[in-house]
User: Fold this.
Amino acid sequence: MTPEKTFGNTDAARDEYQQLITRSRPSYPLPMPYGWFAVSFSDQLAAKQSKPLRYFDTDLVLFRTESGHAAVLDAYCPHLGAHLGYGIHEEVGHGGRIEGETIVCPFHAWRFNTKGECVEVPYATKIPPKAQGKACLRAWPTHDANGVIYVWYHPAQAEPMWEVDSYEEAAGGDWGEQNRFEWVVKTHTQELAENAADPAHFHYVHRADAVPEWDIKYDGHRATGEQKVGFQTPRGVVNGFIRTSSDGPGQGNTRFSGLCDTFMMGLATPIDENIALMRFAFTQHRDSEKSNIAKGLIRDVVGQFEEDKPIWENKRFRASPMLSDGDGPIAQFRKWYGQFYHDFDPTQLRSGA
Ligand code: FES
Ligand SMILES: [Fe+2]
Assistant:
């Protein structure tokens, strides 16, 4: 007797079907915004280390020179195209070798400095004329602060338009070690940021008792918000504040006070137009960082992100949303965020989309 064949309704078919319907979601019609974006935590890159990166729909190499300077270059060598972030011999599984202030291409050992200039072709008598006196690899503006390596992305390669602030809460002293979380999220970075301008979802997605009232100010590249909150604790409600401050699309800070002083950097970086990498880095005041309340606060914020994730990963972008009078400052938020698009006006997206 031949075993009975089963058709349909298998777990494999269901998984495949799920993938198919997720893939068929329309792509985001928005480009990647410009700004400073986290590409690594600083202590994830030792001196004389290099590694491949992929952000901004571009292959990159990140390295730290012998003197400690972090740099990011386009990945592919201008000679014959090797990726500088993949080493050979002793460096297999690591990046290209670092010599002094330069990175060495694994293929024919041409050396490049942090400006992307070729400084040596070890088997030739001179640097090729095409590479003389100029960068032959794009060097991305890089800034190392707050325990984070930031890169300036601009699609037309405009120079940085603001500086990265250094925060005392991320500098040790009275503040503890960074507590970090990372997610790859299949969404556009604008959708992640819109979370803060959407008070109603806090009730329905995050089970907040009431729809919170935010007072958000949009000013230049900065958006700041303040909210009075009653933190739920086992000992009852404790009044406090949540203050948010975004410097462009890649640097969002939240300061919680009242319960236990907590500073959180929310660092969203586009991998491309449809995928973002989100990092959270919390530091808490040493007075209270070991308390259960401090741990609970981090758990709640991280839990909220994970509650939002399935919505982001399955929604589509509505260029002309149908808004109610109970919605927050979504239109102002979008206008503010829209300033970070180069040569692109999101209001021109077809209405009804
Ligand atoms: S490909 Fe880089 S040195 Fe030849
Ligand atoms: Fe949320």
